[in-house]
Write a structure and sequence with these properties.
globular; 4 helices
């Protein structure tokens, strides 16, 4: 009888007396071998300062759907997002919270956006800090890509409204496409240095050719 009970415990809970967990094995993350497309000094005042960074998501390889984004990026810790538009404009953002598909938002002053006014000059990016208080700095929708503020930068926003904290039984419904991005600055993140109210300059929307996400494998291993 006792042996039967122990066997049932092993079967139901993935535990055995030797201490080996048979149910919590997860495949190691796949990282793309890419050079950092931004200077390390960009992260001097962040949790990622001094840490090795690797690319955990490359949309042109892993897929542009928000589902693919979260499969690669969730539970990796703080991360840097870098996007490229179809006219070679480069921009990005830093999320100190990372992503977990919570359908919730986070308060922080540590998130920021950035862009390169002229990539050909190889200048450092211009940073746009959080403004208007720390509230609603980051949104983490399971059916959407990165979102900074309610309107600061949305990459692949959900195609259907997310009600409350539950995305509904069909998580593939209304999944965002990370080829699409839009931006309005001034309310949640500072305006550009030239006074323009969109990260993309004169246009509020942009079509993206690629989106990269860089994280710390050391931090990701703790999840």
């Amino acid at each position: 009888m006792m042996a039967s009970c122990i066997s049932n415990c092993v079967c139901l809970f993935g535990w055995n007396p030797a201490g080996n967990n048979t149910t919590n094995h997860k495949p190691p993350p796949n990282y793309h071998n890419l050079h950092l497309p931004f200077p390390s000094s960009l992260l001097n005042k962040t949790f990622l300062n001094g840490k090795e960074l690797k690319c955990c998501y490359k949309a042109s390889i892993d897929g542009f759907s928000a589902t693919s984004f979260h499969e690669c990026v969730d539970f990796k810790g703080p991360c840097v997002i870098v996007g490229y538009t179809d006219n070679s404009f480069k921009f990005g953002g830093f999320s100190p919270e990372g992503f977990r598909s919570t359908d919730d938002y986070y308060e922080t002053f540590d998130a920021f956006l950035f862009y390169w006014p002229d990539e050909q000059k190889h200048d450092d990016p211009i940073v746009l800090p959080k403004v208007g208080g720390s509230g609603a700095a980051l949104f983490d929708y399971a059916r959407g890509g990165p979102q900074f503020g309610a309107d600061g930068l949305l990459i692949g926003p959900p195609l259907a409204p997310v009600m409350g904290g539950f995305a509904g039984p069909d998580t593939n419904s209304g999944v965002g496409d990370l080829r699409q991005a839009k931006s309005r600055l001034g309310l949640s993140y500072a305006k550009r240095a030239d006074g323009k109210e969109s990260l993309f300059g004169d246009e509020s929307k942009a079509c993206l050719e690629d989106v990269l996400v860089f994280c710390s494998p050391q931090i990701a291993s703790l999840y």
